[in-house]
Amino acid sequence: MRQTDQHPPADSPTVELGVSAVVPQAPSPQPAAEVPVADAGPVVRKNRLAALDGLRFLAALAVVLFHFVGQTPGAMEFVWGRPVDALFPDAHRYFAFGRLGVDLFFLISGFVICMSAWGRTPRDFFISRVTRLYPMYWVAIVVSAAVIYLFDTPFGHPNPRVLFANFTMLQTPLGVDNLDSVYWTLWPELCFYLTFAVVVWKGLTYQRVVIFCGLWTVAAVLAPSAGIPLLTLLVNPTSAPFFIAGMAFYLMYRYRPTPLLWGIVAMSWLLALHFLLAPHGGRNNWETWSPWRGWLILATTVFFLLIAAIALGWTTWIRGRWLTVAGTLTFPLYLLHDVLGVTVVHHFSGRVDPWALVGMTAGGLIVLSYFVQRFVERPIAVAMRRRLSSAEFGLKAPAPRQRS
Fold first, then answer.
1. What's phi and psi for 242, nearest 5 deg?
2. N or C terminus of the chain with fewer C-beta within 10 Å?
3. In this structure, is residue 327 part of a structural domain?
4. Among the residues of 151-184, which ranges form H helices?
5. Which residues, at least 6 apart from 333, have a Cβ–Cβ distance to it below 8 Å?
6. What domain range includes position 381?
7. Residues with Cβ within 8 Å of residue 181, at least 6 apart in sequence
8. Is 258 helix (H, G, I), strand (E, B) or coil?
9. Residue 33 lies inside a defined structural domain of this protein
C-alpha cells in the first residue's frame, strides 16, 4: 500500500467521569448564544453557523490540495512520476501546510459535537453519531476498494482482511492498516464520541463539560509518560487539545467567555503546540516534513483565533446557504479524495498540465461529493435514523418464537 507522509499519531480521547470537583457556577446564557443546536449530520438544517461550515470546507480543501501538491518529494514523485521541482517548485512548500487542516477539523468537531449534543438524550446522541459517521464511511470504503482492486493505482492491493477490519472503523485498535491513509482521523473522532457520550448520559451542563475538559487534559498530559499503550490509544494526547478547546469555545458561545474557559483554551493551545513541536512521538513526523517552527506556531494560533471569533459572535454576519451546502460536502470530500484523486493524478500526470490537472480533479471531486452526499449518503442516513429511532435498545429478551 502506498506510504504517504501523513503521520497519524497513536492517540485518542478517553476520560473517566464521576470525579467530584468544585467549579464556578455556570454563567447565565446570553440571548445571542441561544442560536441553534445544529446537527453535524448530513441533512441540511436551518440556523447552522455558516462561518463554521465554511471553515470546515476550507479545512477539507486544504487536506485535498496537500495530497495533490504538498506531500513529501518522494511521495509526490511516486504519484506524479516526476520530481516535485518539475511540478510545483515554489508552491509545494506552501501546500505542505495543508496537512494541518486536520487540526482545524478537530477544533471544529469539539465545538460542533458539544453544540449538537446539548439537550439530547443518549439514544438521540448515539443515533446522530452513528448515522453521521458510518453511511458515508461505508460508501467511501466500497468506492475506494473498487478503485484499488480493479484499477492500476499507487495504493497496491491490500489483504482482504484489511477491508473487513476497516468496515468496523476499529482498525486502529485492531492493529490493522487503514485502507486509505486519511481514515486515521476517524479513530480520535470515534473515541471522542464514545467518551463524551458519558457526559450526555449524565446530562450536559456547563459544569460537567468543564470537568470533562479538565479530566481529559490531565489524561492527555499523563498518557505519554505512563507507559501504557492502551491509555495513549484511548486518550489521543496529540489530538485531545483541539477537541478540548473546541468544547470550551462552544461554552463561550452558549454562555459567555470567562477566565476559566479562557484558561482551558490557553492550556489546550500550549499543549497543541507542545505536541506539534515535539521532536519524537508528537503530532508531526520531522523525518518527512521539517518546516520553520514559527510557521507551525502561527498556523495553529490562527486556527484557535478563527474558532474564538465564532465563539465570541464576531462572525454572525457571515451568511449564505452555499456555505451550509459546502459544510455538508466536507465529509464525503475528505473520505473520497485520496484514493480517487491520487489515482486520477497518477494516470493523467504525463498528459495534462499539473495545475490544470489539480484544478480539474479537485473540482470534479467537489461535484462528486455533492451528488454522493445528496443522493447516496443522505438517503442511507435518513433510513438508518428512522430505523434506529424505532428500534428497541434495551437488553430485554424479545418474545419467544412460537414453535409448532
1. -70, -45
2. C
3. yes
4. 160-168, 171-174
5. 57, 60, 61, 64, 365, 366, 369
6. 49-389
7. 2, 4, 6, 8, 338
8. coil
9. no
Q: Please state the domain count of the chain.
A: 1
Q: Is residue 156 part of a domain?
A: yes
> What would the pLDDT profile of 309-334 be if each residue is shown by its tens digit?
999 999 999 999 999 999 999 999 99
Rounded Cα–Cα distance for residues 42 and 273 (Å): 32
- Name the residue type at position 204: L
Nine cell digits for residue 156: 497496491
Q: What is the pLDDT of residues 67-121, one digit of tens each?
A: 999 999 999 999 999 999 999 999 999 999 999 999 999 999 999 999 999 999 9
What's the chain look like in SS3?
Answer: CCCCCCCCCCCCCCCCCCCCCCCCCCCCCCHHHHCCCCCCCCCCCCCCCHHHHHHHHHHHHHHHHHHHHHCCHHHHHHHHCCCHHHHCCCCHHHHHHHHHHHHHHHHHHHHHHHHHHCCCCHHHHHHHHHHHHHHHHHHHHHHHHHHHHHCCCCCCCCCHHHHHHHHHCCHHHHCCCCCCHHHHHHHHHHHHHHHHHHHHHHCCCHHHHHHHHHHHHHHHHHHHHHCCHHHHHHHCCCCHHHHHHHHHHHHHHHCCCCHHHHHHHHHHHHHHHHHHHCCCCCCCCCCCCCCCHHHHHHHHHHHHHHHHHHHCCCCCCCCCHHHHHHHHHHHHHHHHHHHHHHHHHHHHCCCCCHHHHHHHHHHHHHHHHHHHHHHHHHHHHHHHHHHHHCCCCCCCCCCCCCCC
Q: How far, in whole angstroms, is CA 244 from its chain's centroid?
A: 14
- Ramachandran region of residue 375, left (φ > 0), alpha (ψ -120 to 50) or beta? alpha
Q: What angle do CA 236, 241, 244 make, to 5 degrees?
A: 105
Could you tell me the three cell numbers for 339? 484514493
Identify whether 376 is part of a domain.
Answer: yes
Residues whose CB falls within 8 Å of the CB of residue 207, separated by 6 or more in sequence, listed in order: 23, 25, 26
> Residue 46 corresponds to which cell in the numbers above?
436551518
List of residues 6+ apart from 335 with CB closer than 8 A: 136, 137, 139, 140, 180, 182, 183
Angstrom CA distances, 211 to 24, 113, 269, stand at 11, 16, 18
pTM, two decimals, is: 0.88
